[in-house]
C-alpha cells in the first residue's frame, strides 16, 4: 500500500509474511516506532500472480477497513508488489503519495489506462451487470521493453502494456493498460490502445492524442487530439437471447502533425483524414469488444445496465445470467469524427 510521506523522493518499504492483511499490519506495528495509519492510502498494489488466484478475500478486508478511503486506486502489478513499490522513484513531486496520485490521473489526458478506485472495483466485483477491472502496472526496464517494429507505425504507440514501452527514465514505474477480471480472478490484460477504446465506449475519455494512418504516406502517421463531441450512445438488444450491442461514438478533434505538402484547409483533405480516423477507431474498438467477449468473457463495459430494464422481476434478471451470456455478444461500432486543422495560417 502507498500512503503519504513528508520525505522528499524517499519512502520506506516494509514487507511481512502473514496469514491476513490485519495480522500483517499488527506485525508491522510491533516493529516500527509508529502505528500504521491507512487513512491516507493512495494506492493498493496487488501482484498479477496473486490476482490470477482470486482476490475477493483481500478486497472485502480492505473495504471493511474504516481507515482506507474508497477512492484509493487498485493496481495490478505485472511484477511482485514489493518490487513495484521499491522501484518507485518520484520525479517532479516531493511527496511520494502525491506522485502516485498525479501519475494515476494521467489517464485523463492519455487514455492508456483507467483511474479505477477500490469502490469501483468492489462494486463491479459484486455487480450483476458488469465485471471488475483495475489499473495495470509494472516496472519499466531495458530488459522488459518490447519491439513492435513489425506493426504499422500507427499501431505502435498503443500496442504496449505496462513495463513494455521503450521509455528510458529515472522513474521506473509505468501504468499502461487494464487488468481484466472475471468475478475476483484476473483473466487477461488490455494494451494502451485497447484501454483507450474501453474509455471511449464507457464515456470516460477526457482527451487523448492518437496516431492514425496517413492517407498520403503509408509509412507515417497523423497525430490527432480527440475528445467527445457528444456522449456515446449504446444500444443493447437481445435477439433470440443473444446480445446485439451497437456503439455510436461522436468525436471532435484537431490535427497536430502537419505536412507542408498537404493543404489541411481543403475540405476534401479533412474529410479523407476523418474517414481514415473513423475506420481506424472502429476496427480497434470492435477488436477490443470482441476480445472482452470471446476471449476474456468479461463485461467490463457494463453493457448489462442497458438491458436489465427488459426484465420485469429481479429473479428473471438473475436467471438470464447476463455475465455468462456476454460471451455470445455481437457488436456494431460506428465512429463519427469531426476534425479541424491546427494551422495558424490557411491558403487564400
Number of strands: 10
Question: Which class best fits the helix and strand makeup?
Answer: alpha/beta
Number of H/I helices:
12
Intertermini distance: 59 Å
Q: What would CATH call the class? A: Alpha Beta
Write the CATH fold name: GMP Synthetase, Chain A, domain 3
Overview of the structural elements:
Helix content is 30%, strand content 24%. The chain has 348 residues and is α/β, with parallel strands linked by helices. The protein has one domain (21-341): Nutrient germinant receptor protein C, domain 3 (GMP Synthetase, Chain A, domain 3, 2-Layer Sandwich), CATH 3.30.300. The strands form two sheets. The protein has a five-stranded mixed β-sheet with strand order 1-2-3-4-5. Strands 6, 7, 8, 9 and 10 form a five-stranded mixed β-sheet that branches. A hairpin with a 2-residue loop joins β8 and β9 (242-255). The N and C termini lie far apart (59 Å).
Keywords:
348 residues; GMP Synthetase, Chain A, domain 3; five-stranded mixed β-sheet; 12 helices; 10 strands
Concise synopsis of the structure shown:
30% of the residues lie in helices and 24% in strands.
SSE arrangement:
Elements (H helix, E strand, L loop, with lengths): L20 H9 L13 E5 H6 L2 H9 L8 E5 L3 H6 L9 H9 L2 H4 L7 H9 L6 E7 L13 H4 L16 E10 L2 E6 L1 H10 L6 E7 L2 E12 L4 E7 L2 E14 L11 H29 L18 H7 L1 H4 L4 E12 L7
Parallel strand pairs: 1-2, 2-3, 9-10
Antiparallel strand pairs: 3-4, 4-5, 6-7, 7-9, 8-9
Helix pairs in contact: 3-7, 9-10
Amino acid at each position: 500500500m502507498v500512503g503519504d510521506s513528508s520525505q522528499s523522493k524517499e519512502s520506506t518499504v516494509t514487507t511481512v509474511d502473514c496469514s491476513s492483511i490485519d495480522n500483517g499490519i499488527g506485525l508491522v506495528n510491533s516493529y516500527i516506532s509508529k502505528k500504521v495509519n491507512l487513512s491516507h492510502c493512495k494506492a493498493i498494489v496487488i501482484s498479477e500472480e496473486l490476482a490470477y488466484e482470486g482476490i475477493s478475500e483481500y478486497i472485502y478486508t480492505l473495504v471493511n477497513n474504516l481507515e482506507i478511503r474508497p477512492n484509493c486506486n487498485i493496481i495490478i502489478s505485472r511484477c511482485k508488489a514489493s518490487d513495484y513499490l521499491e522501484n518507485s522513484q518520484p520525479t517532479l513531486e516531493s511527496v511520494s503519495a502525491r506522485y502516485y496520485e498525479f501519475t494515476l490521473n494521467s489517464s485523463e489526458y492519455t487514455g492508456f489506462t483507467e483511474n479505477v478506485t477500490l469502490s469501483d472495483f468492489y462494486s463491479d466485483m459484486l455487480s450483476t451487470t458488469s465485471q471488475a477491472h483495475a489499473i495495470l502496472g509494472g516496472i519499466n526496464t531495458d530488459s522488459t521493453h518490447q519491439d513492435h517494429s513489425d506493426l504499422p507505425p500507427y499501431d505502435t504507440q498503443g500496442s504496449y502494456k505496462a513495463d513494455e514501452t521503450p521509455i528510458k527514465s529515472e522513474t521506473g514505474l509505468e501504468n499502461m493498460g487494464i487488468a481484466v477480471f472475471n468475478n475476483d480472478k484476473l483473466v487477461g490484460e488490455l494494451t494502451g490502445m485497447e484501454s483507450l477504446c474501453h474509455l471511449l465506449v464507457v464515456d470516460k475519455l477526457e482527451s487523448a492524442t492518437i496516431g492514425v494512418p496517413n492517407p498520403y504516406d503509408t509509412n507515417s502517421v497523423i497525430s490527432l487530439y480527440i475528445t467527445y463531441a457528444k456522449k456515446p450512445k449504446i444500444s443493447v438488444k437481445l435477439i433470440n437471447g443473444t446480445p446485439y450491442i451497437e456503439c455510436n461514438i461522436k468525436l471532435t478533434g484537431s490535427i497536430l502533425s502537419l505536412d507542408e505538402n498537404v493543404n489541411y484547409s481543403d475540405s476534401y483533405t479533412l474529410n479523407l483524414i476523418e474517414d481514415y480516423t473513423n475506420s481506424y477507431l472502429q476496427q480497434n474498438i470492435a477488436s477490443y469488444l470482441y476480445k472482452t467477449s470471446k476471449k476474456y468473457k468479461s463485461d467490463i463495459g457494463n453493457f448489462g445496465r442497458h438491458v436489465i430494464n427488459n426484465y420485469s422481476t429481479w429473479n428473471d434478471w438473475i436467471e438470464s445470467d447476463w455475465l455468462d451470456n456476454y460471451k455470445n455478444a455481437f457488436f456494431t461500432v460506428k465512429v463519427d469524427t469531426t476534425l479541424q486543422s491546427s494551422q495558424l495560417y490557411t491558403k487564400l
